[in-house]
Amino acid sequence: MLKLSFVWKMGVAAGISWDMASLLGPNPPYFAPLAVVLTMQETVEDSIWLGYQRVLGIIIGIFLAEWSSHTVGIHGWSIGLLVVAGTLVARLLRLGKQAVTQVSVSALLVWIVGVSHPGYALDRVRDTIVGVLTGIACNMFILPPDFTPAANQALQKATHRLAERFEVTSAWMMDGLTGHRGDILEKENNEYLPLLHDAKKQLDEAVRALNYSPLVKKRRRRLAEYDTDIARLQFGYEQLSLMCKTVMDWKNSSNFDLVACREWGKRMGDIGRLLRRFAEVQFTSERDDGSIPSPRVKLPPLLDDSYEVALANQFRQFEREFVPNTRANNGELH
Q1: Contact at 8 Å (CB) between 155 and 230?
Q2: pLDDT tens for each residue of 164-191
Q3: Closest Cα to residue 318, out of 162, 158, 175, 189?
Q4: Which ranges constitute the DSSP H helices of the chain?
Q5: Distance CA 75, CA 193 (A)
Q6: How much is the pTM?
Q7: Which pLDDT belongs to residue 334?
Q8: Distance between CA 208 and CA 202 in Å, rounded?
Q9: Which 8-state DSSP code applies to residue 303?
Q10: Do residues 89 and 134 lie in contact, with contact meaning Cβ atoms separated by under 8 Å?
Q11: In sequence order, what are the beta bridge partners of 332?
C-alpha cells in the first residue's frame, strides 16, 4: 500500500510538471503529469529507472513511426508490423516492460494523432522528459523515501529472538540437559536463520531506497551501523550453535558435572538479558547518546575441564563482539 505522503508528493509533482512544461510549448502538456504518475516510484532509484525506460521507449517508437510512415504508409498490416517491430526492438535492446510498451504505444499515437497534429511527436518527448525529471526531483528532495523503520523493526525482532534462544537453552541446562531436548533445541535454533535473512533483506531495501538521495546522511550512517549489527547477530547465532555443541559433547563425556552445567545455564540466561538490553540501546533513541550495554556475565577465574574452558572462550568471544572494549578482570567481563 502506498504511503499517504507519497500520494501527496506525486500530486505535487504532477502539478509542477504541468506548469513547467506549459512554459516550453503552446499546447497543453498532458504527457508531463502522465509521466509523473506512470514513472514515480517509492524509491528514487526506481523512479530514475522507469523514467529512463519511458523516455527511451517513446523516442524509439517515434523513430519507427516516422520511418515507416514515409516508407510503407498507414495500413492494417503495417500497423500490426509496426507493433511487432517495436516490441522486438525493445526486447533486443533488453529494455524493461515500461519501454517495451512505450515503443508500440508511441509509434501508434504518432501515426494516429500526429497526422492531424503537427509537432505532436516533439511535444510528447518534451513533456515526458519534463514529467520524468520533475518526479525524480520531487522524490529526491521532498520527503525522501525512508525504509529505515522497517529495517529497525526487523533487527529488533531478530535480536529478541536470539535472546529467546539463549534463554530457552539456559532453561534446558538448568534442568540438567534432560531428555532429547538438545536435538529439538538444535532444530529450533536453525529456524532463526530465516528471520535473520529477512532482517538483512529489509536492511538492503532501506539502503537501496537511499540511492540518489543526497539529503539523508544521518539515515545513511544509521543503516551502516545496522549492517554491523546484522553481522553481530550472525556471529551471535554461530556462537550459540557452538555453545550448544560443546554442552552436548560435555554431557556425553565422563567429565560431565551437573552443578557446573547449571551454573553455565545461568550464564546463558545472562547472555539473553544482555541481548535484550542490546536491542533497547541499539534500536531505540537511546542509541543517539552513544551508550553501550554493560555485560554482567561472571566467569570462573580458573577452569580445569576442557569443556568449561571452551564455553568460557565462547562466552568471551560473544561479549567482545557485542560489547566493544570488553576486558577480563577477576573472572568478570566489563
Answers
A1: yes
A2: 999 999 999 998 887 677 778 888 888 8
A3: 162
A4: 4-22, 31-39, 44-69, 76-92, 97-112, 120-141, 148-174, 181-190, 192-209, 217-251, 258-282, 306-322
A5: 60
A6: 0.76
A7: 34
A8: 10
A9: -
A10: no
A11: 298, 329
